[in-house]
Design goal:
This protein is α/β, with parallel strands linked by helices and 437 residues long. 36% of the residues lie in helices and 26% in strands. Bound molecules: L-homoserine.
Length: 437
Protein backbone atom coordinates (compact mmCIF):
# COMPACT_ATOMS: atom_id res chain seq x y z
CA UNK A 1 0.00 0.00 0.00
CA UNK A 2 1.39 3.40 -0.98
CA UNK A 3 1.76 6.09 1.67
CA UNK A 4 1.16 9.75 0.94
CA UNK A 5 3.56 11.21 -1.62
CA UNK A 6 6.82 12.72 -0.42
CA UNK A 7 7.30 16.23 -1.79
CA UNK A 8 10.73 17.17 -2.99
CA UNK A 9 12.36 20.48 -3.81
CA UNK A 10 15.56 20.45 -5.85
CA UNK A 11 17.92 23.44 -5.77
CA UNK A 12 20.43 23.54 -8.60
CA UNK A 13 19.66 22.23 -12.08
CA UNK A 14 23.20 21.65 -13.28
CA UNK A 15 24.70 18.28 -14.16
CA UNK A 16 23.54 16.47 -11.02
CA UNK A 17 20.27 18.38 -10.59
CA UNK A 18 19.08 17.61 -14.09
CA UNK A 19 20.31 14.02 -13.77
CA UNK A 20 18.32 13.61 -10.56
CA UNK A 21 15.17 15.11 -12.08
CA UNK A 22 15.44 12.89 -15.14
CA UNK A 23 16.20 9.62 -13.31
CA UNK A 24 13.41 10.27 -10.80
CA UNK A 25 10.98 10.73 -13.70
CA UNK A 26 12.27 7.74 -15.65
CA UNK A 27 12.32 5.31 -12.72
CA UNK A 28 9.31 6.70 -10.86
CA UNK A 29 7.48 3.35 -10.59
CA UNK A 30 10.44 1.47 -9.25
CA UNK A 31 11.42 4.25 -6.85
CA UNK A 32 7.85 4.44 -5.55
CA UNK A 33 7.75 0.69 -5.00
CA UNK A 34 10.98 0.83 -3.01
CA UNK A 35 10.10 3.95 -1.03
CA UNK A 36 6.49 2.80 -0.61
CA UNK A 37 5.53 6.35 -1.48
CA UNK A 38 5.66 8.45 -4.63
CA UNK A 39 8.55 10.90 -4.72
CA UNK A 40 7.15 14.03 -6.32
CA UNK A 41 9.37 16.93 -7.36
CA UNK A 42 7.13 19.89 -6.59
CA UNK A 43 9.53 22.82 -6.65
CA UNK A 44 12.79 23.56 -8.46
CA UNK A 45 15.16 26.35 -7.49
CA UNK A 46 17.48 27.32 -10.32
CA UNK A 47 18.96 30.57 -11.52
CA UNK A 48 18.58 29.35 -15.10
CA UNK A 49 16.96 26.56 -17.08
CA UNK A 50 18.92 23.53 -18.24
CA UNK A 51 18.12 22.16 -21.71
CA UNK A 52 19.14 18.69 -20.43
CA UNK A 53 16.03 18.73 -18.27
CA UNK A 54 12.40 19.01 -19.43
CA UNK A 55 10.72 20.33 -16.28
CA UNK A 56 7.18 20.57 -17.69
CA UNK A 57 4.83 22.38 -15.33
CA UNK A 58 6.96 21.86 -12.21
CA UNK A 59 7.14 25.08 -10.22
CA UNK A 60 10.48 26.86 -10.76
CA UNK A 61 11.83 29.67 -8.57
CA UNK A 62 14.82 31.78 -9.49
CA UNK A 63 15.27 32.54 -5.79
CA UNK A 64 16.35 29.15 -4.44
CA UNK A 65 15.47 30.17 -0.87
CA UNK A 66 11.80 30.02 -1.85
CA UNK A 67 12.23 26.24 -2.03
CA UNK A 68 13.64 26.18 1.51
CA UNK A 69 10.58 28.09 2.75
CA UNK A 70 7.95 26.27 0.70
CA UNK A 71 5.58 24.59 3.19
CA UNK A 72 4.78 21.91 0.63
CA UNK A 73 8.38 20.64 0.46
CA UNK A 74 9.33 17.72 2.77
CA UNK A 75 12.89 17.21 1.52
CA UNK A 76 15.18 19.82 0.01
CA UNK A 77 17.88 18.51 -2.34
CA UNK A 78 20.85 20.87 -2.34
CA UNK A 79 22.78 20.61 -5.60
CA UNK A 80 24.09 24.12 -6.06
CA UNK A 81 27.64 23.41 -4.86
CA UNK A 82 29.97 25.82 -3.06
CA UNK A 83 29.80 26.46 0.64
CA UNK A 84 28.45 29.95 1.26
CA UNK A 85 24.97 30.04 -0.30
CA UNK A 86 24.73 26.25 -0.01
CA UNK A 87 25.23 26.47 3.75
CA UNK A 88 22.67 29.28 4.12
CA UNK A 89 20.19 27.35 2.00
CA UNK A 90 20.72 24.10 3.91
CA UNK A 91 20.37 25.80 7.28
CA UNK A 92 17.28 27.70 6.13
CA UNK A 93 15.70 24.43 5.00
CA UNK A 94 16.55 22.75 8.31
CA UNK A 95 15.13 25.66 10.30
CA UNK A 96 11.97 25.26 8.24
CA UNK A 97 11.72 21.62 9.31
CA UNK A 98 12.86 20.07 6.02
CA UNK A 99 15.12 17.10 5.61
CA UNK A 100 18.09 17.78 3.36
CA UNK A 101 19.85 15.64 0.78
CA UNK A 102 23.08 17.03 -0.61
CA UNK A 103 25.84 15.99 -3.00
CA UNK A 104 28.06 18.74 -1.62
CA UNK A 105 31.24 17.27 -0.14
CA UNK A 106 32.80 20.65 0.60
CA UNK A 107 29.73 21.65 2.59
CA UNK A 108 29.70 18.44 4.65
CA UNK A 109 33.48 18.25 5.10
CA UNK A 110 33.84 21.87 6.21
CA UNK A 111 30.54 22.56 7.98
CA UNK A 112 29.02 19.14 8.57
CA UNK A 113 29.56 19.24 12.36
CA UNK A 114 27.51 22.44 12.63
CA UNK A 115 24.89 21.35 10.08
CA UNK A 116 24.31 17.96 11.76
CA UNK A 117 23.95 19.66 15.15
CA UNK A 118 21.38 22.07 13.72
CA UNK A 119 19.52 19.19 12.06
CA UNK A 120 19.40 17.35 15.41
CA UNK A 121 17.97 20.46 17.08
CA UNK A 122 15.22 20.65 14.46
CA UNK A 123 14.61 16.91 14.39
CA UNK A 124 15.39 16.49 10.70
CA UNK A 125 17.97 14.41 8.81
CA UNK A 126 20.79 15.41 6.48
CA UNK A 127 21.86 12.78 3.96
CA UNK A 128 24.90 12.99 1.68
CA UNK A 129 25.51 9.66 -0.12
CA UNK A 130 26.28 11.52 -3.36
CA UNK A 131 28.99 13.60 -1.70
CA UNK A 132 31.59 10.82 -1.85
CA UNK A 133 32.49 8.67 -4.83
CA UNK A 134 29.45 9.59 -6.95
CA UNK A 135 27.28 6.55 -7.53
CA UNK A 136 29.15 4.15 -5.22
CA UNK A 137 27.07 3.59 -2.06
CA UNK A 138 30.12 3.92 0.18
CA UNK A 139 28.45 6.07 2.85
CA UNK A 140 25.76 3.47 3.37
CA UNK A 141 28.36 0.70 3.34
CA UNK A 142 30.36 2.35 6.12
CA UNK A 143 27.39 3.56 8.13
CA UNK A 144 25.28 0.45 7.87
CA UNK A 145 26.74 -2.51 5.99
CA UNK A 146 29.99 -2.49 7.98
CA UNK A 147 28.44 -1.39 11.28
CA UNK A 148 29.63 -4.56 13.02
CA UNK A 149 33.29 -3.82 12.31
CA UNK A 150 36.07 -1.80 13.80
CA UNK A 151 37.38 -0.11 10.66
CA UNK A 152 41.18 -0.25 10.64
CA UNK A 153 41.90 1.70 7.49
CA UNK A 154 40.52 2.71 4.15
CA UNK A 155 42.18 3.88 0.98
CA UNK A 156 40.43 5.24 -2.04
CA UNK A 157 40.66 6.72 -5.48
CA UNK A 158 38.01 9.33 -4.78
CA UNK A 159 38.53 11.94 -7.44
CA UNK A 160 37.43 10.84 -10.90
CA UNK A 161 39.02 13.76 -12.71
CA UNK A 162 42.44 13.11 -11.20
CA UNK A 163 42.20 9.40 -11.95
CA UNK A 164 41.07 10.13 -15.51
CA UNK A 165 44.07 12.43 -16.00
CA UNK A 166 46.57 9.94 -14.55
CA UNK A 167 45.09 7.08 -16.60
CA UNK A 168 45.16 9.01 -19.88
CA UNK A 169 48.69 10.28 -19.25
CA UNK A 170 49.90 6.76 -18.55
CA UNK A 171 48.03 4.93 -21.32
CA UNK A 172 48.08 7.48 -24.11
CA UNK A 173 50.90 9.84 -23.18
CA UNK A 174 48.39 12.69 -23.30
CA UNK A 175 49.09 16.16 -22.07
CA UNK A 176 47.82 17.09 -18.57
CA UNK A 177 45.94 20.25 -19.65
CA UNK A 178 44.30 18.52 -22.60
CA UNK A 179 42.91 15.69 -20.44
CA UNK A 180 41.72 18.13 -17.79
CA UNK A 181 39.80 20.10 -20.45
CA UNK A 182 38.08 16.88 -21.55
CA UNK A 183 37.13 16.04 -17.94
CA UNK A 184 35.62 19.52 -17.59
CA UNK A 185 33.64 19.12 -20.82
CA UNK A 186 32.32 15.75 -19.58
CA UNK A 187 31.07 17.36 -16.36
CA UNK A 188 33.44 15.45 -14.06
CA UNK A 189 35.62 18.31 -12.88
CA UNK A 190 34.83 20.75 -10.11
CA UNK A 191 33.85 24.34 -10.97
CA UNK A 192 37.40 25.19 -9.91
CA UNK A 193 39.44 22.27 -11.30
CA UNK A 194 42.34 23.01 -8.97
CA UNK A 195 40.12 21.31 -6.36
CA UNK A 196 40.52 18.11 -8.40
CA UNK A 197 44.21 18.26 -9.28
CA UNK A 198 45.44 19.71 -5.97
CA UNK A 199 43.61 17.07 -3.94
CA UNK A 200 41.14 19.36 -2.16
CA UNK A 201 38.10 17.53 -3.54
CA UNK A 202 39.61 14.20 -2.44
CA UNK A 203 40.38 15.68 1.00
CA UNK A 204 36.75 16.74 1.37
CA UNK A 205 35.65 13.19 0.60
CA UNK A 206 38.32 11.53 2.72
CA UNK A 207 37.42 13.43 5.86
CA UNK A 208 33.78 12.34 5.45
CA UNK A 209 34.81 8.70 5.01
CA UNK A 210 37.15 8.86 8.01
CA UNK A 211 34.46 10.27 10.28
CA UNK A 212 32.03 7.54 9.23
CA UNK A 213 34.70 4.85 9.58
CA UNK A 214 36.14 5.86 12.94
CA UNK A 215 33.23 7.71 14.60
CA UNK A 216 34.96 11.06 14.90
CA UNK A 217 33.88 14.64 14.16
CA UNK A 218 34.78 15.98 10.70
CA UNK A 219 38.29 17.47 10.75
CA UNK A 220 38.82 18.82 7.25
CA UNK A 221 41.58 21.26 8.20
CA UNK A 222 43.70 18.35 9.50
CA UNK A 223 43.90 16.42 6.22
CA UNK A 224 47.34 16.42 4.62
CA UNK A 225 46.70 17.30 0.97
CA UNK A 226 49.08 16.94 -1.97
CA UNK A 227 47.99 17.09 -5.63
CA UNK A 228 49.09 15.41 -8.84
CA UNK A 229 50.48 18.43 -10.65
CA UNK A 230 54.13 17.63 -9.92
CA UNK A 231 54.06 14.06 -11.20
CA UNK A 232 56.29 13.47 -14.20
CA UNK A 233 56.16 10.88 -16.99
CA UNK A 234 59.54 9.59 -15.73
CA UNK A 235 58.07 8.77 -12.34
CA UNK A 236 55.18 6.92 -13.98
CA UNK A 237 57.70 4.95 -16.05
CA UNK A 238 60.13 4.13 -13.21
CA UNK A 239 57.24 3.16 -10.93
CA UNK A 240 56.14 0.67 -13.61
CA UNK A 241 59.66 -0.68 -13.86
CA UNK A 242 59.55 -1.38 -10.13
CA UNK A 243 56.14 -3.09 -10.46
CA UNK A 244 53.92 -0.21 -9.28
CA UNK A 245 51.29 2.19 -10.64
CA UNK A 246 50.91 5.76 -9.46
CA UNK A 247 47.45 6.67 -8.18
CA UNK A 248 46.12 9.67 -6.28
CA UNK A 249 44.92 8.12 -3.03
CA UNK A 250 43.06 9.25 0.02
CA UNK A 251 44.16 7.22 3.04
CA UNK A 252 42.60 7.14 6.52
CA UNK A 253 44.19 4.80 9.02
CA UNK A 254 44.08 4.20 12.77
CA UNK A 255 47.68 3.65 13.78
CA UNK A 256 47.73 3.40 17.58
CA UNK A 257 48.76 7.04 18.09
CA UNK A 258 45.68 8.45 16.38
CA UNK A 259 44.38 8.75 12.86
CA UNK A 260 46.29 9.34 9.66
CA UNK A 261 44.35 11.50 7.20
CA UNK A 262 46.20 12.04 3.95
CA UNK A 263 45.68 12.63 0.24
CA UNK A 264 48.70 12.30 -2.03
CA UNK A 265 50.10 10.54 -5.10
CA UNK A 266 50.95 6.97 -4.16
CA UNK A 267 52.77 4.02 -5.67
CA UNK A 268 50.57 0.90 -5.47
CA UNK A 269 51.75 -2.61 -6.38
CA UNK A 270 50.44 -3.18 -9.91
CA UNK A 271 48.67 -6.43 -8.95
CA UNK A 272 46.36 -4.70 -6.48
CA UNK A 273 42.82 -4.09 -7.72
CA UNK A 274 43.08 -0.41 -6.82
CA UNK A 275 46.09 -0.05 -9.13
CA UNK A 276 43.84 -1.14 -11.99
CA UNK A 277 41.02 1.33 -11.42
CA UNK A 278 41.21 3.57 -14.45
CA UNK A 279 39.49 6.49 -16.12
CA UNK A 280 36.89 8.45 -14.18
CA UNK A 281 36.08 5.43 -12.01
CA UNK A 282 36.47 5.61 -8.23
CA UNK A 283 37.17 2.80 -5.79
CA UNK A 284 37.43 2.57 -2.03
CA UNK A 285 39.11 -0.29 -0.20
CA UNK A 286 37.98 -0.68 3.41
CA UNK A 287 39.59 -2.99 5.95
CA UNK A 288 37.26 -4.04 8.76
CA UNK A 289 38.44 -6.23 11.65
CA UNK A 290 35.65 -8.74 11.13
CA UNK A 291 35.02 -8.66 7.41
CA UNK A 292 38.61 -8.10 6.23
CA UNK A 293 39.13 -6.10 3.05
CA UNK A 294 36.11 -5.02 1.00
CA UNK A 295 36.28 -3.03 -2.23
CA UNK A 296 33.69 -0.63 -3.64
CA UNK A 297 34.05 0.37 -7.28
CA UNK A 298 32.06 2.45 -9.73
CA UNK A 299 31.42 5.79 -11.36
CA UNK A 300 32.68 8.56 -9.11
CA UNK A 301 31.13 11.45 -11.00
CA UNK A 302 28.67 12.31 -13.74
CA UNK A 303 24.98 13.20 -13.91
CA UNK A 304 23.20 9.88 -13.51
CA UNK A 305 25.68 8.02 -11.26
CA UNK A 306 25.49 10.92 -8.81
CA UNK A 307 21.71 11.08 -9.25
CA UNK A 308 21.61 7.40 -8.31
CA UNK A 309 23.12 8.26 -4.91
CA UNK A 310 20.86 11.29 -4.38
CA UNK A 311 17.79 9.15 -5.06
CA UNK A 312 18.99 6.43 -2.67
CA UNK A 313 18.96 9.07 0.07
CA UNK A 314 15.51 10.23 -0.98
CA UNK A 315 14.17 6.68 -0.77
CA UNK A 316 15.74 6.24 2.68
CA UNK A 317 14.20 9.47 3.90
CA UNK A 318 10.82 8.61 2.44
CA UNK A 319 10.87 5.32 4.38
CA UNK A 320 11.96 7.18 7.47
CA UNK A 321 9.17 9.73 7.10
CA UNK A 322 6.75 6.81 7.14
CA UNK A 323 8.40 4.96 10.01
CA UNK A 324 9.18 7.94 12.23
CA UNK A 325 12.24 9.58 13.70
CA UNK A 326 12.99 6.68 16.07
CA UNK A 327 14.42 4.59 13.23
CA UNK A 328 16.75 7.35 11.98
CA UNK A 329 20.39 6.45 11.34
CA UNK A 330 22.66 9.13 12.90
CA UNK A 331 24.38 11.49 10.43
CA UNK A 332 27.83 9.93 10.94
CA UNK A 333 26.50 6.48 11.77
CA UNK A 334 27.44 6.77 15.48
CA UNK A 335 25.32 8.37 18.18
CA UNK A 336 26.38 11.99 18.62
CA UNK A 337 27.60 11.51 22.20
CA UNK A 338 29.79 8.54 21.24
CA UNK A 339 31.89 10.42 18.66
CA UNK A 340 35.56 10.34 19.68
CA UNK A 341 37.82 13.33 19.24
CA UNK A 342 40.63 11.23 17.75
CA UNK A 343 43.93 13.02 17.21
CA UNK A 344 45.26 13.35 13.68
CA UNK A 345 48.84 12.04 13.55
CA UNK A 346 51.40 14.65 12.35
CA UNK A 347 52.78 13.69 8.94
CA UNK A 348 56.40 13.58 10.24
CA UNK A 349 55.35 10.51 12.23
CA UNK A 350 53.50 8.74 9.43
CA UNK A 351 55.39 5.67 8.21
CA UNK A 352 55.23 4.44 4.64
CA UNK A 353 57.72 3.05 2.17
CA UNK A 354 58.99 5.75 -0.21
CA UNK A 355 59.95 6.12 -3.86
CA UNK A 356 62.72 8.71 -4.36
CA UNK A 357 64.22 9.86 -7.64
CA UNK A 358 67.35 11.96 -7.86
CA UNK A 359 69.86 13.08 -10.47
CA UNK A 360 73.37 11.94 -9.49
CA UNK A 361 76.77 12.66 -11.04
CA UNK A 362 78.12 9.46 -12.53
CA UNK A 363 81.19 9.35 -10.26
CA UNK A 364 82.71 6.90 -7.79
CA UNK A 365 81.41 7.18 -4.23
CA UNK A 366 78.09 8.93 -4.99
CA UNK A 367 75.97 5.84 -4.46
CA UNK A 368 77.74 4.97 -1.24
CA UNK A 369 77.33 8.56 0.08
CA UNK A 370 73.61 8.36 -0.63
CA UNK A 371 73.34 4.90 0.96
CA UNK A 372 75.18 6.13 4.10
CA UNK A 373 72.68 8.94 4.58
CA UNK A 374 69.77 6.49 4.41
CA UNK A 375 71.54 4.26 6.90
CA UNK A 376 72.18 7.19 9.30
CA UNK A 377 68.43 7.89 9.28
CA UNK A 378 67.63 4.24 9.94
CA UNK A 379 66.03 3.87 6.50
CA UNK A 380 66.40 0.54 4.78
CA UNK A 381 66.61 0.39 0.98
CA UNK A 382 64.23 -2.12 -0.63
CA UNK A 383 65.19 -1.62 -4.29
CA UNK A 384 67.41 0.63 -6.32
CA UNK A 385 67.70 1.43 -10.01
CA UNK A 386 70.57 3.35 -11.52
CA UNK A 387 70.30 4.08 -15.23
CA UNK A 388 73.29 4.32 -17.53
CA UNK A 389 73.97 7.92 -18.59
CA UNK A 390 72.46 9.08 -21.87
CA UNK A 391 74.91 9.90 -24.66
CA UNK A 392 76.93 13.00 -23.64
CA UNK A 393 75.30 13.13 -20.14
CA UNK A 394 77.32 13.08 -16.92
CA UNK A 395 74.28 12.62 -14.67
CA UNK A 396 72.22 9.54 -14.15
CA UNK A 397 68.78 9.03 -12.63
CA UNK A 398 68.96 7.15 -9.35
CA UNK A 399 65.71 5.66 -8.11
CA UNK A 400 65.43 4.34 -4.57
CA UNK A 401 62.56 2.41 -3.06
CA UNK A 402 62.74 2.30 0.74
CA UNK A 403 61.14 0.10 3.33
CA UNK A 404 58.70 1.74 5.75
CA UNK A 405 60.14 4.96 7.16
CA UNK A 406 58.70 7.89 9.09
CA UNK A 407 58.34 10.99 6.97
CA UNK A 408 60.50 12.94 9.45
CA UNK A 409 63.46 10.59 8.80
CA UNK A 410 62.89 10.78 5.05
CA UNK A 411 62.79 14.60 5.27
CA UNK A 412 66.17 14.53 7.03
CA UNK A 413 67.65 12.13 4.49
CA UNK A 414 66.35 14.15 1.53
CA UNK A 415 67.82 17.38 2.93
CA UNK A 416 71.21 15.73 3.48
CA UNK A 417 71.26 14.09 0.03
CA UNK A 418 70.21 17.29 -1.73
CA UNK A 419 73.13 19.02 -0.03
CA UNK A 420 75.65 16.58 -1.56
CA UNK A 421 77.76 18.18 -4.31
CA UNK A 422 77.13 15.28 -6.65
CA UNK A 423 73.34 15.43 -6.49
CA UNK A 424 71.62 17.96 -8.78
CA UNK A 425 68.35 19.71 -8.01
CA UNK A 426 65.48 18.51 -5.84
CA UNK A 427 64.64 14.92 -5.11
CA UNK A 428 61.21 13.75 -6.34
CA UNK A 429 59.46 11.62 -3.74
CA UNK A 430 56.22 9.70 -3.61
CA UNK A 431 54.79 7.56 -0.84
CA UNK A 432 54.07 3.87 -1.38
CA UNK A 433 51.03 1.97 -0.05
CA UNK A 434 51.23 -1.80 -0.15
CA UNK A 435 47.49 -2.10 0.69
CA UNK A 436 47.71 -5.58 2.11
CA UNK A 437 44.57 -6.39 3.98
N1 LIG B 1 35.16 16.55 -9.45
C1 LIG B 1 34.74 15.36 -8.83
C2 LIG B 1 35.55 14.21 -9.39
C3 LIG B 1 33.27 15.13 -9.09
O1 LIG B 1 36.19 14.39 -10.42
O2 LIG B 1 35.58 13.16 -8.79
C4 LIG B 1 32.63 14.19 -8.15
O3 LIG B 1 32.77 14.57 -6.83
Amino acid sequence: MSLKPVKIGICGLGTVGSGTFNVLARNADQVEARAQAALQVVHLGARRDNPACEVGDTRVSRDIFEVARDPEVDILVELIGGTTTARELTEEAIRNGKHVVTANKALIAEFGNEIFALADQHDVAVRYEAAVAGGIPIIKALREGLAGNRIEWLAGIINGTGNFILSEMRDKGRDFADVLAEAQALGYAEADPTFDVEGIDAAHKLVILASLAFGMPLKFSSVYTEGITRLTPQDVEYAEELGYRIKHLGVAKQNGQGVELRVHPTLIPEKRLLANVNGVKNAVLVEGDAVGPTLYYGAGAGAEPTASAVIADLVDLARELAAGQACRVPSLGFSRDSLKDLQVVPMEQVRTPWYLRMEAEDKPGVLSAVASIFSEQGISIEALIQKAPEEGETRVPLIVLTNGAAQGCVDNAVRAIEALDNIAGDIARIRVEVLDG
